[in-house]
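Hi Y.,

Following your request, here is the sequence exactly as I used it, all 206 residues.
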Amino acid sequence: MPIEVDLVDDTPFLPGALRARAEVLQDRFHVKVHARTWLDYDLDAAMSADVVIFKAELRDHVPAGLKVRALRRLGVAAVVLLAGESEPHRLQLAGEGATAVLSRASGYATLEDELLRLEADGARAVADDIDPPLLTDRELQIACIFASRAAPSARHIGELLDLSGETIRAHLQRARGKLQRSGHAVGTRNSLRLALYDAGLLFPES
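Below is the corresponding structure, written out as tokens. Let me know if you'd prefer a different format.
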């Protein structure tokens, strides 16, 4: 049986290339869903997928690390595509439970090889016995939104996530404290942005 693959990616060429190769290799993998944004992707649909491939730099309110965590909890293998080579980001995503973290610079053939490997080995999510993350889901989400180039206020983040401004500030304070204790400067929004980026938690905004 071919593995079922979902793709969440807004680049112009990858979806067509993946579907074309799936036609040739239809006994190995099948592209079930393609969405251009994470907001357009129905996470419930991921429960019927074997593998979800997604672009790490998607601009939305769900950091890449949280996407990996959500897929791992569903038992779905996450394959993350990075715009460029970045060891901190690769290590962080692998630590979150990504099955594979690939650079687009390595070319489509590397992605296809990974899908064929997953089909041969039996696609599965990374086991749950991974190290606890530095930040909780909410801490990571709120810190990344706050540190984004849009520079939203706590009130605006609260409106987005349906949480009070007080709750937003409390999560943000805890996230800053944890990052500071791990050796990062987080006193300003810009320093928090750099800390999250250096830790592999925040990605360049395209």
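The first helix runs from residue 14 to 24.

Thanks again,
Q.
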